Amino acid sequence: MIKLKFINGLRTKLIICFLVISIIPALIIAGLSYNNSRKFLQQDAIQRLSFVRDTKKKEVEDYLNSGLNRVSYMAQEPMAIDAMNELSQIQDIQNSNYNNIYQKYNPAFVGFVNKLEAGDILLVDSKTGNILYSTLKESDYGTNLLNGPYKNTNVAKAFENARNSSDKNFVCITDYEIYSPSNSKPIASIAAPIFKGNENIGVLIFKLGTNKIDEIVSNNNKWESLNIGESGEVVLIGSDYKARSNTRFLSSESDEKIKAAKSTILLKEIRTKGADEVLAGKTNVETYGDYHNTESIVAYTPLNIDSLKWGVLVKINQSEAYEPVNKLKIAMMFILIAAVAVIIIVSVGIASNIAKPMIKMSKVANEISMGDLNVDLPEVKRSDEIGILTNTISNMIHNLREQTKEIINVANVIASSVSQITASLTQVTSGATETSSAVSETTATVEEVKQTVYVSSEKTKNVSNSARQSLEISKAGDKATEETLEGMNSINFQMQAIAESIIVLSEQSQNISELIESVDNISEQSGILAVNASIEAAKAGDQGKGFSVVAQEIRNLAEQSKQGTKQVRNILKDIQKAASNAVMTTEKGIKLAEMGMKQASEAGNAIRKLTENINMSAQAAMQIEASSQQQLIGMDQIAIAMDGINEASVQNVDSMKQLEDAAKNLQDMGYRLKALTEKYQV
Prior knowledge:
The chain has helices spanning about 1-5, 10-75, 80-90, 95-115, 155-165, 210-220, 255-260, 275-280, 320, 325-370, 385-485, 490-540, 545-590, 595-680; strands at about 120-125, 130-135, 170-180, 185-195, 200-210, 235, 285-290, 295-300, 310-315.
């Protein structure tokens, strides 16, 4: 886990990024430099090898062609013609004259050999094939090339070619072979016919050794002067894939024959890709394994020398050709390693400079995420983005700490306030519920009062009707009193009727008294109801303003009803008193009829007074009836208002419940906010 954290760390990532950003371009540059250097060295090696190849090709061709020309020229010299002619006349090398002829011409031939190359010149008779002259007098001297022991050698082939030619300018060369008369050394033969006039009388053969060829190939054994390095060499090969020149590394050859002969000519076989190509007549530069099985760069080209099928191969080991680039690669590796070390050191420094503040900030951020706001980020004196970020985060922590303190205080206040609001809302909701219940009860009471008022109104109508009837009766009594004066004879009957009417009036007065008592009670209850309605209207606020007006009107009506009932009660007292008097008078009238006129007169007066009182009672009853009707209308309005108040109370209860739920939610949010802020340490 720690290892993974280290790998994923900012410092490690920055170091890796710096390394990648630095090393990849360095690798690319090194790779491009290496490839360009390799290509350059390869091209340089190709150019050098091609130059040496072409140079050696020309030198060898020039040398052999020069030898061909010189032999042809020598064969046409009068001295050579004379010598051949004189020698062919003797044919016997043992003849005493032969020695004189030999001594005569030998210095000239020796001089020719010295000019061309150390070798042997043979003069062979065309007709007989006898070797009549030899500068070195080797073992082939005096033998016959047509039927002698060397008839199958390349020397004999050269002789045959020149002997059969009719061209005075003809010259030919045969390839190297191990020639026993010349100490079994490689010998090439250049032959030209000797004509006397148009007759081919003989053949001049120059037996060419390998010394001059080796000198040309190796720059007189100064291989380093060829600029082909320590592994470079130039090799001539023939059609049999065998060397026609000594190799540079002759001393390191392991073959016994080569060691014995101290030569690789005609003993070292070189079968390589370049050998196949050059003997096929192709010119090119290729890289392949040479005859040492070493990867080499080889430049090859065929030689144009008469009938010889030769090729020249110039090679250098690829490792040596690319040695500078290999050294460059090693140097680049060391430079790259040193650069990587420097980059790592610089990267660690830069990464630490960047990562340390970031690590501190990440730790502080982690502690803040855990709720600890007491952490502090030291102020850094840096003008770069890291310093700005560090100081900004430090200021942010300070501001966050102060804001969190404020939030905690606000959360505490909110939690406390919400608790108080919730408690108050609970009480208000309970009160609203109770008010709703009270309003419902009041509505029911109002309905009952309404019914009572309705009954009272009906009874008041009855009282009013009774009062009207009493008024009519009193009028009739007044008329009867007037008529009493005219007809006392019927007084007994009338008095009886009056007694009965007074009894009925007394009963009606008693009923009116009871009705007035009921109306008085209704007025008291209406007053109390008006007071309660005013209280409820005040509690209901704006919604109860209209009902407050109605309550005030009900209170006024109740007061008026109370005043009316008081007046009616007083009147009824008078009526009752008058009725009592009338009863007494009637009784006295019945008992004392004899006092008819006097008492009739008094009765008339009393009846008139009674009529007046009854008129007043009728008017009061009509007022009571009107008041009762107004009370009934007011009670209807109160009932409607109470229904509205009841509905408003129900709505208020529902609203208060919703408000209580909202307050509880707010309280829960306050608790949650408080819980969230409690985990911060400030």
